[in-house]
Amino acid sequence: MSDTSFDSRTYETDAQFGDYYALLKPRVMTLVVFTALVGLLAAPVAVHPFVAFCAVLFIAVGGGASGALNMWYDSDIDALMRRTAKRPIPAGRVAREEALGLGLALSGFAVVFLGLATNWLAAALLAFTIFFYVVVYTMWLKRSTPQNIVIGGAAGAFPPMIGWAAATGSIGIEAVLMFALTFMWTPPHFWALALFVRQDYDNATVPMLTVTHGRRVTRVHILVYTALLAALAVGTGFTAIGGPVYLAVALVLNALFLRGAVQIWRRDEVAAEGDNFAVEKKFFKLSLLYLFAHFGAILVEAAAGRLGAW
């Protein structure tokens, strides 16, 4: 990785608080926080509100640390992509060394204090998640294989499992199901994005599936993974973390998601470029709602179960 373009002597603008906050990828952190919270509250044990708050806070900090380390390492290719060129490092507002220091410091802080606040299994899972995202995905997979987002998606799937472990001190089948739901959702979500920002990945020579195999193959992969995801998501409705509310949400959203995947699969490339990939962008936006709605339904089922127990 070349970093000659990011010499610290080129930083003439004083960084603001918002620049350091942006290093933590706050939009991604929102998903981390929410799924971790659901994992914690869906666990079959009562957790003191203060302990729950601390657990979610430290998981969020760990997620933010991963984002800072990702931006540190990827600053060279971020500068080449229109979607990421305005991030703090390529825009020249924060030095790479500062991002590295912030990421390492927050990583250590989050892992240690999560262990002290909850248990060391949860802390170990958080440490492994940071390692997986930064080393396995960012440093290795992202630049070496079109399967980068498939394997690397595990990093974003760990938060609900960490939340469950923070509450119970163990990993149950329910935590594995929440992990699997996020893991299977990640490829169609990111491949939909890759369809309409392919030029960015071309410019940065990142081997996304759209670059190495083309958009036609990517469309097929989206359809296949969406079908597998739908089977998993609906099937989860018949497990301990499911129920009538979850099942209703899963049936509606997966029908819409499958419909969108079929529309993407049928797309003609000329037509897609002609309407600026409107169908692909719609599917991408739906994918954001998809995961939040499924985990929100799991949270509703957990709350209903506790009320029923009273």
Explain how this protein is built:
The protein contains 16 helices and no strands. It is mostly helical and 310 residues long. It folds into two domains: 13-170, UbiA prenyltransferase (Tetracycline Repressor, domain 2, Orthogonal Bundle), CATH 1.10.357.140; 172-305. The chain starts with 16 loop residues before the first helix and ends with a helix. The model is unreliable at 1-12 (pLDDT under 50). Its EC number is 2.5.1.141.
What is the strand and helix layout of this fold?
Layout: H1 17-23, H2 26-42, H3 49-73, H4 75-78, H5 96-117, H6 120-140, H7 148-152, H8 154-157, H9 159-168, H10 173-196, H11 198-204, H12 209-212, H13 214-236, H14 244-265, H15 269-274, H16 278-309
Helix pairs in contact: 2-3, 2-9, 2-16, 3-5, 3-6, 3-9, 5-6, 6-9, 9-10, 10-13, 10-16, 13-14, 14-16
